[in-house]
Amino acid sequence: MASLPICPSSPSSFLSWPHRPVSLSFQPKNPSSSPTAAHVSVQDSPPLDPPPLSDPSQNTRFLWDAVIVLNTAAGSPATAVLALRWFLQNAEVRNKVILYNVVFKVLRKKRRWSETEALWDEMMRDGVRPDNTTFSTVISSARACGPPGKAVEWFEKMPEAGCSPDMLTYSVVIDACGRAGNAEMALRLYDRARDERCQLDPVICATVMKVHSTSGNFDGALNVFEEMKAVSVKPNLVVYNTVLDAMGRAMRPWVVKTIHREMVSQQVQPNRATYCCLLQAYTRARYGEDAMVVYRVMKDEAMDIDVVLYNMLLSMCADIGYAEEAEEIFRDMKTSMDSRFKPDSWTYSSMVTLYSCTGNVPGAEGILKEMKEAGFKPNIFILTSLIRCYGKAECTDDVVRSFGMLEDLKITPDDRFCGCLLTVAADTPVEELGKVGDCIDRSNAQLGAVVKLLVDRKASTESFKEAARAILSGVCSVVKMPYCNCLMDLCVNLGQMEKACALLDAALQLDIYSNVQTRTQVQWSLHLRGLSVGAALTTLHVWMNDLYTTLQNGEELPPLLGIHTGEGKNMYSGKGLVSVFESHLKELDVPFHAAPDKAGWFLTTSVAAKHWLEAKKSSES
Questions:
Q1: Measuring CA to CA, how many Å separate 447 from each of 422, 439, 495?
Q2: What digits encode the pLDDT tens for the residues 4-45?
Q3: Contact by Cβ (8 Å): 321, 357
Q4: 602 beta partners
Q5: What burial letters (b/e) apply to 153-189, b meaning 16+ CB within 10 Å?
Q6: Residue bearing the bigger pLDDT, 9 or 387
Q7: What's the pTM?
Q8: Are the C-beta atoms of residues 61 and 24 closer than 8 Å to each other?
């Protein structure tokens, strides 16, 4: 009886057995062979005189039977290797490489790289010549579980074995290079594939686009997408999803919309991954209307929306003031039957941020209560938003109480939290400013000292400037401009214009404000976009003095003077710099007027500006 050795640890490995008798296609080398280690029989009673394997059809049927047996052992790589050895030792196998390839795939599935290398060595000793399938399988195994660079190493062995890489092999090794962070090698291989005039296909194009996207070369990803269409390679669903993801990461929502329309026109059916790419692209770019359309489509189609996507939507809603939409999403999360989609701490943080932007104290407090009931503790992000909300509503005592929660929870204030306190201080009435100043001092003593020097009218401007320079030099770059904006707002609110000008000078020296002024032969411009109201008014004050000094020095002004404020509104204050500036310019009777064809711009002529500056200086003297 011919028997097959099976690992004792896997007695049920071959429960799924071919239904037809294996004897029709199997001829052992030695009919009397019966390994003593056998545990499962291939057949109970083989024919005494099986047909010879000289018939090609019989050999083919044997190969398929062997493949079935090896695939059945896929759950146990060791069993598959033993079964392969048994077939090779006890049967005449013409196409041994086919059986080796099956076992290589078994090892790849179980991520057994060392066993893969060992089986390759065994195959070489057996004199079996690898084919393209062998290499693509081993290379993809190296990509999945081998050391970095192994995939390329095996790819380079192909010419020695007489194999020429096809597009599938190129795709695998290019992807392996991309995963290893070797984008240069990946793109070199792609160029090599094109030079060898390999027919481009969607698989390799999607792989190269992914490599470009991972390395941040989003233009490269888009170029590959356009190139494949130029050579009549029709993009499939994977290609569309890959380029949509790349353009979403590149913050190009308009390109995402164009590609999605093309996808629909080509009758490529979107799947969940497509909608996830669209949702991520639109939420990143704050395309609120488009994001909500995609969200509702996914909801209508009962597609899974995980908590990460939910939180991206809520973060977008908080930033652009979509209160009703955020509340709808929040309700959907809470009513979900799947625990994976329930609100987490980031969800509650976004909701508190949303209410803080509008000063909705009851809404923010309600979310905080729900959060505690759900078992989450407030983190620094939630407390930051809560304090901003109380500050906007001018609830100074609640600001102090919330700060006490931070200390009770033993949370260390960071630079952003201190920036939030500065924002609150800038809008706090003078009689209550000391309460917020105390919170700032307890959060950051150095920043607290700067605020004290600012508020104290007896403190010298120079000492305030040096203290402000020291704090601005030490904080992280992302909060430097917000700190300057808030401190200058506070200076302007307290009527400390000299200190505001000193702070602006320090900020310009530290390159915190850059490109505030531009000059050409035709026009001098002041760029205030991104500055707070106090910082913008201070900059305007200094610029006007500079213009007067220019005239005093006998120099001429250009034909046009312009002030650019931008069109947007501050997310937390709700004030648009353009509207504030328009009223301020009218109050000063400055001859700057809103440009009818350039939104956010105020323009005047040199003649009008010169007349106003001279009249103003003479009235002051």
A1: 9, 11, 20
A2: 443 433 333 333 333 333 333 344 444 444 333 333 333 333
A3: yes
A4: 563, 594
A5: ebbeebeeeebebbbbbbbbbbbbbbbbebbebbbeb
A6: 387
A7: 0.70
A8: yes
